[in-house]
Amino acid sequence: MSTQEKTALILVDVINSFFEPGHPNYYKAVEDVLEPMRALRKAASENNIVTVHAVERHRPEVFHDFEWKKLPVHHLEDAHDADFFADFRPQGKNETVVIKRRFSAFFATDLALFLHEQKVTRVIIAGVKTNVCIRATAQDAFANGFEPVIVREATNSNRPHLAEASLEDIERYMGRVVSLDEGLEMLA
User: Fold this and answer.
1) Which stretches make up the Isochorismatase-like domain (predicted)?
2) 116-142 per-position pLDDT tens digit
């Protein structure tokens, strides 16, 4: 990494809805990304690297939400399914939260502004699901002038063929797809 590059870690939707068995968005393979995400977060913490927890939250049902035209009502503010999973609650001086209402952590949030203010040029993106929120976040990271890096072991989907296609597109058109070891090196 040159002196001009600065990296941040973005953890996308590490919430009960995806990671706690019994919720509609849970799938067994999601558990495979937990330890790689913990390793990335630990490396970021040890090296004073900004970690952003990008989590989906929606207002109560009394308010219309366009996303519900396509998906059932989900991730309402203060609901258990929208809460941070297990030990992924933000902690430490270098961690912050961005609330998102769509798939991308950048769309209609202040994430790009925040990262530019921190002089970040590269974002390592981990979480779920590769073909939906991870891809949308990577695409918008690229559109906002950041190099998106996806750590292969730290993301997956209940639609593996779509996850692989998304990783191929990210590598080809937007950023990089790296191994966990490479991701950890970028956070060193």
Assistant:
1) 7-181
2) 999 999 999 999 999 999 999 999 999
Which residues does residue 86 pair with via DSSP β-bridges, in sequence order? none
- Catalytic option among 39, 125, 133, 187: 133
CATH topology of domain 7-186: Rossmann fold (3.40.50)
146-177 pLDDT, tens digit per residue, is 999 999 999 999 999 999 999 999 999 999 99
DSSP assigned state of 105: S
DSSP, res 28: G
Query: 137-172: buried (b, 16+ CB within 10 Å) or exposed (e) per residue?
Result: bbbbbbebebbbbbbbbbbbbbeeeebeebbeebee
Tell me the domain boundaries of the chain: 7-186
- Is residue 136 part of the annotated active site? The answer reads no
What's the angle, vertex CA 81, arms to CA 76 and CA 86, rounded to 5? Answer: 135
